[in-house]
Amino acid sequence: MSLTIRPATAADEAVLVAFNTAIAWETERKRLDPAVLSAGVRAVLADPARGFYTVAESGGEVVGQIMVTFEWSDWRNGWFWWVQSVYVAEGARRGGVFRALYRAIESRAAADPAVIGLRLYFEADNTRAQATYRALGMADTSYGMMELYPLAGRAAHVGHE
Fold this sequence. Notes:
Blueprint: E1 4-7, H1 13-28, E2 30-32, H2 34-46, E3 52-58, E4 61-73, E5 78-88, H3 97-110, E6 115-120, H4 127-135, E7 158-160
Helix pairs in contact: 1-2
């Protein structure tokens, strides 16, 4: 499969929203509020300080995406880039789309001396994804993840099915 990797633009909003909707359903069986999701995607596209999307195209069609957000590490005096919202269209899976997207992000991060590493989180039972991440050179950490969501007085924007 011939791929073009490029930064996402405002013209990609609809496919990014569709892919994020699919991620939530496929991985967590969650239905996202379309208005909230659309606003969230637009916010990233409009403000590089929030993060950025990178997409993979094949035959002029977007077939994969990654969103990157940023975490400052005071311990290491540098930025970690968080790989998030990973999605590859069903018909393009097992065709190297994620690998190409990841390598593009890795190269971009390596070119920025302020970026010290890449991180991602994954569903604990998604062993296939974990094997893929390890094959790309990522390693398990001792960190777990917890959250408080939504904050008191705020509505949750994700439902469980």
